[in-house]
Structures are given as structure tokens and as C-alpha cells.
Amino acid sequence: MNVNAILNNVMGTAGAGIDKAVQGARSGGMPSGLLGGAAAGGLAALLLSNKKARKMGGKALTYGGMAAIGGLAYKAWRDHKEDQTRTQPAQRSAHAAAIYQQTAANTPAPPAGSIFDLANQPSTSQGEDMRLVVIRAMISAAKADGHIDADERTRIEGQIKALQIGQDEQQFLIDQLNAPSDPIAIARLSGSLEQATEIYAASALAVDVDTPEERRYLERLADGLHLPEDLRQRLDEETAIR
Fold this sequence. Notes:
It is built from 13 helices and no strands. By secondary structure, it is mainly alpha-helical. It has one domain (about 65-240). The radius of gyration is 17 Å and the shape is globular. InterPro entries: TerB-like, YebE.
């Protein structure tokens, strides 16, 4: 399977798909059509609502696509680990959270060759490409609010079939589109705390958390991933879902 072809059509080359989605959201509508992949906005533009696209624009465009997710996850994980070496109150104060959000814009690039460096093609404990896991997580989360109805699903599936990618790649995307929005199934794909951090970061970026269904989805995902509460708080602040 050509993972890069899938990435270019979901995220867009170097984040171009998200970029087009954000531009469409800011102008009052989503890009029309998906023909041409990233040039038409990427699959992200079809899956994300206007609010979600604007939200992703603030973070994911910092590096573009996968590198942004790895960077966000790495920063939250690193800061969580550093806090474990110091005595911290059980609950972080609102002031501390505000400061953290202000500095979150300076998200570092993930260390080259690390588990957070998705360009390095890391695999899960089940041997699955972590980049595909991230895509699965984003698509599952994006569907959590139910905004993709049967007609919209049929339209997206038709446009996936029109993409200039192989049948295996098309089928992967169609399978994810039609799969249940199941946070526990997604959580089972994680093989480490680092991977759990990336999966949650990607999922939180793909939702807007303005519906009970989305909030419940992330709560169940965090539970299934066994994320420490402090780490989840940092990820929530990084992705600005609270």
C-alpha cells in the first residue's frame, strides 16, 4: 500500500489539504469536490466541519500534516515526563493552563528518528504503520458527531473512488469512512504511551467538542488509551478543545 499517496489525499501534500479546508472554512464554505486530491482540499476538507477546519489551521499548518501531530504529541508527552520529576499539585491551576496554552504555539518539531517522527514510518506493536493509525484515528473522531449522514457518506465514497490512487489505497479510505466511530477500537491500536499520545492528539484535532457525542468520544478514547490525567490535560490544552 502506498501510504504517501493516502497521506497526500487526506492531509494534503505538506498540509495543503488542511490548508484548503481552512481557507474554505474562513470564507464560509468548504472546498467543492475532491478531484485532484490535495489540490482540491484533501479528504480532510470533506470530513471536517468548518469549525474543525479553522481549529486545525491554528496548529496543523505549523509544520504541515503529520509533522504537526507528532510535534503536538511530543511537546505534551515531554512536558508530562518533566513534570513527573517534580512535585506537582494533583490538579493544575487555571493560570498554569493559560500559560501553557500561550506557549503551545511554540510547538517543537519531533526529534528525528523518534516515535513521534511520523516521517520515519514507525510501526505499532501490531506492525501497522503509525501514519495509517493516525489517519484511522482522525477519520473515526471526525465522524463522532454524526455530521456525515448517508448521503454525505455516499458522496465522499464516490469522490474517493475518483482519486488518482490505487485500488488498495481507495479501499482503505472507504473502509475507514464506513467503519463505526469506535474510540475503544482505535485505542487498541496503541502499543505504548507515546503512541497513545499521538492517537489522542490526532483525534482531538479532528473534533470540535461542541457536542456531547464528541466529548464522550474523547473521554472514552482517553480511558481506552490509559492516558494519565495530566497528560490528557496537556493534550487538551495543546489542541484547544476546552
